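Re-run with default settings, no changes from the original entry. Doing this only to confirm the output is reproducible before filing.
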Amino acid sequence: MSTHASVRVASADSAVSLVEPLRTLLRSLGQIVLQKHAGTGACVLVALALCDLRLACAALIGATAANVCALLGRAPFDAIRDGLAGFNGALAGLAAVTFCSDTATAFALALLAAAFSAWLGTPLVRVLGRARLAVYSVPCLAATWLWLALDAGGERAASAASPMPAALSAADAFAGLMSGIAQTVFASGALPGLVLLAGTAWSSRRAAAYALGGAALASALEILLGTPPASFAAGLCGFNGALAALAASALGPRAAICATMLAAALHLAAARLGLPAMTAPFALAGWAVHLAWRLRLRNHESSRSGQSNHRIVR
């Protein structure tokens, strides 16, 4: 084989060897919106970059650090490949950049929080797996709440939301709804939200419909209960509802509606108490609805079994 042919073969092998790690990284970003799809992850990255390049960098750093730590910790390879080991690291990185005012400190915290989330994620998956519950964003929440409690990020950057008129126009309502979709990945703005919704539809049009419906229902409920229009404009009313609807979508529309309403109520309660709930309302709502539906199914099966036995006795 000639030298040039050998170089071409080596280059092709190198390109192939890089494809799967890249897919794993993108799947980690896609799993933020509960989609095991590299295309969704690519859209997440574009949405973040459209909002703030620091967010895109933080997500990549966090996902990479979490995946490496998961490999070193001998997490199941299937979980790493599907993005389940890296998405909490990406979220932890995004939270660090969002809540920490100093950029250098934020990226240092992103690395540490991502590593901690990977370390915590493996045992949490085992514990919650016994109850047949998903881990959702709990490792990220634990890591972020820890450094917030220690005041490791210093003074938090103030989030400025544009004032809105008392009566929402159709354009304002659409922009706020898309911002709610964008906030599932700590972004904001109508364009990032549209890109993220398109990325979710790339994986599953059904999932995109649930995310959109969840964001709309949660936003409407929170506005009716007195949330300021500026919070809706920033997308803070809709993101927990969108994620909760996605989490319960496998159980059907009624379960998704229940999860969305519960997530909205929990988010509103946390906001009134001044607590940094982030995605905790969605995780709690997802667990509650899955447990309730499982109990409902068990009771239904027991009732049918009792009726059958009664007919046999008669």
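The mean pLDDT is 89. The longest helix spans residues 280-313.
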